[in-house]
Amino acid sequence: MTDEAFFELHRAIPRQGPGDASDVLWALSVVGEPARVIDAGCGPGADTETLAEALPLAQIEAVDLTTHFIEEARARLECFGPRVNTREGDMRDITGPADLIWCAGSLYFLGLETALPLWRGALAPGGAIVFSEPVFLSSPPSAEVAAFWADYPGVGTEAELRRRIAGAGFATRATRVITGRAWLNYYLPLMARAARLRIGAGPDLAAVLDAAEAEFARWRAAPDHIAYLLCVVAPE
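Above: the chain's sequence. Below: its structure in token form.
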């Protein structure tokens, strides 16, 4: 499996992880109407688009390390004009000040214990961070859920996640479980693209397609129990 083959599969799909516009709107119902927003690890800009639509007066910066994701996000977001800025860059380097740092499905690149203290300095007074993280809905998890997250170390219950957040010096203001439709928003376009690419795929791409289809099959085994937890947190 090569990076080139992986990114060939992940081109030209609406989002790069589970999510839904309703998740963004829920978070904004908690944090209010931030004037300055950073979307860290924005991918092709699905959530950035919802943020821009919901916050017509906000200045928004969308950041991602992958060139073609930023190119897709820029094309998607150009209708909002200069108030939405897209740039290729590392999530480690965001500076703010931001009233809201949004990071859906990307925090694992840094890890919670690294990202939250690192981003504290990028928050404006009263600012919040919203991120999603894998979570077990029961303890112990079912065999299907454990198998799905087998390659993702450190997954725990919401209580355990809240303790990690507190250990990083943040308070949890609100949480929302993400299952079902939000995952289909990611998987259905991905699987449709995989089917199109299957014909004529070389060995590297075929291996990537096999892995993606196996992941989707594992998700389908327990779609109501495989979850992210969307967390709204603020410095203590």
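The beta strands are 36-40, 59-64, 84-88, 98-103, 123-136, 156-157, 170-178, 226-235.
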